[in-house]
Amino acid sequence: MDSAFRAIGKPVGNYLASFFSQVKSFTNSSLRALPTVTTVEIHPNLVVRAVLAHLLSANDKGYPGRFDNAVRSIFREETHLRNCPLYVFYWRYNGKWLTIARDLFVTETLGAGLDPDWLNVLKLKPIGFAVTDKPKFRNLPCLNNFITQHDSQVAKLPFALDPIDLSAHWPATTGERGIMLTGGTTSGLVAEPMWRRR
Fold it and tell me: Would you list the domain boundaries of the chain?
């Protein structure tokens, strides 16, 4: 599995850390007037792989499920990243807690004729990631749109600096008439927030 976490001679986590560092340089800025949207330079293929690898390693049940099988197919190079059946969305996350949640099924409104969204979440201030099997999710920008032919290529990624979290647990939350279910391959919240420890 080591190859899943390495590319171009460096751990892919370094590329994810660079993404966080660039965004933090704006969110921690003392400037009073920040742009609504900034641009960061990332290796999109390696950032996507890093997000998937973190979620893959958070399987607290130990046996592969729907998410694990899709990710392992990519890491074994059976599926090219450009044909990935998973879509990685991103936004500015302004919450306090590291959150890793897998195999959630969320619907905001029952009876609307919509199937629940299958959702996997990785959030660490100042960036949140949601991984689903749908090409559109909650009007969030999708990293898949920036995937390049080669892992060594860099892309300029637009990043909205305004936090959009409706609550500390968004998007793994529902409206008043919605429901949320956890899947069979994980207990859901792996990084337990402080409010659940009280």
Answer: 2-164+172-196
